[in-house]
Every structure is written in C-alpha cells, then in structure tokens.
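User: I'm designing a mutation panel for Extracellular solute-binding protein and want to avoid disrupting the core. Could you give me a predicted structure to guide residue selection? Please restate the sequence first so the numbering is unambiguous.

Assistant: Good idea. Sequence first, for numbering, then the predicted structure tokens:
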Amino acid sequence: MKNRRLVHVLTLLSCTALVGCGAVPGLGDGATTVTVWLMKDSASDDFLQRFVADYEKEHPSVELDIVIQEWSGIGEKVTKAIEGDDGPDVIEVGNTQVARYAESGRLRNLTLESIRDLGSEDWLPGLAQPGSIDGAQFGIPWYAANRVVIYNKDLFERAGIDRPPTTRAQWLAATDALDQNGDQGIYLAGQDWYTLAGFIWDEGGELAVERGGDWRGAIDSPAALKGMDFYKRLQALGDGPRNADEATPPQAEVFAEGDVAQIISAPNAARVIEEKNPQLAGKLGFFPIPGKTAAEPGTVFTGGSDLIVPKNSSHQSAAVDVVKALAGEKWQTELARTMSYVPNKTTLADVVGGDAGTAAMAEGAARGRATPNSPLWADVEADNPIKPYMTAVLQGEDPKRAAKTAADRITAALSTD
C-alpha cells in the first residue's frame, strides 16, 4: 500500500495543476488521507519523497497526499478552499499572507501546539509574527529566506578591504573605497523597497502602524526618513537606476559583468552570477547586511512560508501532526540543508553553517521582520507607493513631502471604510 501511495505522490509532483482531497481509489480501507498543499519549488522531489516515506512509516494509519500548487492565482484558490465544505488539511502559504486568510475566521487556532509542542519562543520573528493575529497563532513557520550582501572578493582585495564590514559606518566607508577606477561600489536599484524597509526598521520606524483597529502609513515618520536617507547615501555609491527595482535589469546579471563590488540579494543569486560569468566561480563572498552597531546585523525583510490548517479539514488532529513534523527539528534540518533555506528557529542556525551564503542569511534572519500584518497589505503592494517615493527622493525631491504622499496612499489602501 505504501509503495503505491508514494507513486501517487510522485505523480502529483509532476502535475502541478492537480488539486484534490480525500483517499485515492484502490488504496484500501481504514487509512486516513491527509492532503497537503505545497507550493511549487518550495521543496525538492527528493525531500518530499523522503518525508512521505518516513512519515508514513512512523504513522502507518496515515496516507499523505502531497499536491503541488503554482504561485500564480494561489490567493483566490486558497480562499475558496478554506471557505468550502471540504478543503485540504494543510496548506503552505506565504508568511505575509496569513493575516488575509485568518481574517475569514476559517483557520484553526494553533497557539496551544505552538507553545506546547513546537517551541515557538525560538521561532524566527519574521515568520512567527505575521502568523500571529491578535495574539493567536494561525501560521506555523516553515522556512525562511532573506537578503544578504553578495560581494566580489577580488574587488574587495584590490581596494585593500580584508574583511566584510559589520556596521553601517564601515559599510559606507568600504563601499566608497570600492566605488572607483570604473568599478561600482554597490549596485543598488532605486526602488528596492524591501531593502529600504530593513533600514527603516533599524531606525525604529515602520511602514504602517495600527491604532484602534485602523492602519495608517508611517513612512513619513522621522525614523523612517532616516532609513531613506541611509538608503540614498548607499545607493549613490554605484550606478543603479533610480527609477527601477532590482529586477529591471536583473541585478545578478549586472553583477556578473565583473565591475560591481556588491549587491543586496538572497544568496541563491550567486548561482545566476556564476552561470553568467564562470570566471567569478569561487570569488563570491557573503555577509549579513550590517546594522548600526557591530553587536547585531541589520534588520531584514524575511520572506518564506507558514503552514496553516483550515477549519474545514476533515482530519484536524492528523493535519496538526503533519505540521508538527514539517516544522520540527528533524525535518527543518533536512529542508534547510536540502534547499539552502534558513530553518524556522534561531536555535537551528548552526545546521546550515557549512554553506557561507545560507549561514550569512541565517545570521540576518534572527533580526528579520515582515510587512505590516494587515489583511489588506497586498493592496499596497499591488500599486506600491513606496517605489515612486524612493525615486522622488533619489532624484532630489523633498523627502518629507514625498514621504507624506506615500504614507497617505498607504493609509488609503489599508482603509476598510
């Protein structure tokens, strides 16, 4: 029975459009089928095969039905699934999407399991916080990824820099020294708003704040303006476009040309760089985005995924057990090493210490944050006012006036009136 089931999982992995729940015909009677929706490329086929085989061996009365979903259109699909009569039992969602689904009241409250079984006190804040709504934990952290600084070791050596900077002041000085002789100290696009968010948080500012149930844009606060000022000073030490984000053009491809000393990116950009320019293989280094002092790295936006259990799951207890396994130490370690992710706990950071890029990412993730935990935040990003604000400041417009315009647009997008 188990071998037949594993074949079914592999078939599902190759058919990303499939969606389904319940038992598979021909598997026999008595087994509980737990349907798990996971996102495409979140975990490798090899990892999923190992997890399914191990879990079903340890839980002989449970069959796992792993269904791979595409990111495109997933918001509407998950909403329909949790509001229907018989949805999947476990769903992977983006960490910043939990509030959107929790607002429906259709998710199981996992606070007890978080504290009693999963050691929530050690979770990465950038995964745990967006999964918590009004003090209740609905999203269980699964994996994280965040930005680091990728640097060209040859250019650092040529500039006489023998170690990566650990403070903002050191970083600015090093980048200034690197920005010479036709080389760019850093390639930082003008609208890389996730990076700006980290600088704002480092200054004690916020993108938006909630008061009395109402969300308001806060990017015009004095602290947030300080974050933008640091961004402007850093961005000036290279030739990044002021009116585009890091994807236009793709910054890894710019770095691969060989005359850029640094970019701010997730470590997996190194693969793209080395594919574009094999001569850079072995010449890339990584360090966490520096903080204001050497005591701790800079705050970063944490991307990643949480796991949720819909209330309409037919197998609540079994679903929770699957979540516990995926979020537990054994499979967190396996997932992190297989996929070069940051595991969900700060106490597990050492398991990726053998990979320089992931290790730098894990160090930064301890200071991770997520976007404002409003169910309407996606509306802000859909027509993001932060991007034109950044361009305006970089092109010399008054920062306070530009920030006020952006803050007002954020407030309007988050308004429920």
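For picking mutation sites, this is relevant: The chain has a mean pLDDT of 92. The chain is about 40% helix and 15% strand.
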